[in-house]
Amino acid sequence: MYRTSVLWLCTLLWSVGLAVTPIPSRSPEKNNNVDCTGPIAFTSTGSTSVHSTGLVAYKQNIVNLAVTWDREVGVYTCACSGLHQFSFSGSTEENTRMVLKKRLNNGKQWTPIIATKPSGGSATILLEVESGDQVAVYLDGNSKKFNARHGQDIDVTSFSGYRIAK
């Protein structure tokens, strides 16, 4: 009983910490050498897990020209300010939506920007993002899982972003 309570408490505290603490990039040494004159883009597909907070992680990178995109965590941390385009899609359980959220540099709260209808879909948006801001896709609803694959064994979740102007 005691071990279960301690494990539960640790999980809860970790979830709260994840929700209020900006997620640092896993590659800080790369962040100092970001070339803001070149292309900044990423596309990842296939959701392997959804964190307890609803934050979506991705299975594979198709393109990763953004050193501050972490597909395993599911968070893009902006290294070069500018106008970005973000697109995401997925097939979710009933009454569950995908929501693109943004957290300002050193902010504590994730702000919803745009969402799909319940059961999933897709959305694309242009968004001003400053250095240090974070952008991620969350699942919001009763279920924290995707209808991850369709009949032909093809991934149906994706998240893409790229900077289109400084």
From TrEMBL:
Species, as recorded: Macrosiphum euphorbiae (potato aphid)
Protein name from the UniProt record: C1q domain-containing protein
UniProt key word Signal: yes
Gene3D superfamilies: 2.60.120.40
Pfam hit, one: C1q
Taxonomic lineage: Eukaryota, Metazoa, Ecdysozoa, Arthropoda, Hexapoda
SUPFAM superfamilies referenced in this protein's UniProt entry, alphabetically: TNF-like
Keywords: Signal
Residues annotated as domain C1q: 35-166
PROSITE patterns to which the protein is assigned, alphabetical: C1Q (PS50871)
Top-level taxon in the UniProt lineage: Eukaryota
Signal peptide: 1-19
